[in-house]
Amino acid sequence: MSSEQNPAPDTAETAPATEPRPRRLTYAAALAALEGAALVGGGLWVVVRALTGDPDGRQQAVTLGITLVVLALLPLLAARGLLLRRGWSRGPAVITQLMALPVAYNLLQADSMAIPVGIALAVVAVAALVLLVNSETTRALGIKGPGRAE
Known about the structure:
The chain is mainly alpha-helical. It is built from seven helices and no strands.
């Protein structure tokens, strides 16, 4: 059989990539990657502090650090998918932002240096949500709305 009869398996996923990637999509991917990097950094910091310091519960602190690093996979994979214009990547990116909003709220309720971190996290999460639900981003990812199937 010729190659004309057997289309490449990625043809459907790469179809939207014929146009240049919108800046909004790039910005959304950058914000998701930033959140993922922050989770990795925070997780590693907790693990190092648990192993070198004297925490109340060393095992609990190490578990928290490892959990943060594993949770970082969601926004990092979403950021990669957004950069590659994969339609599936918007879901994990939106979920990441929705999970970040309650965390930001709790940080804002603290009476400490956590308040500026909460403000920054809330701003990043809301900005990323706005970028992710934008119609230009949706078109670039090849996502069709309800009733718009071909």
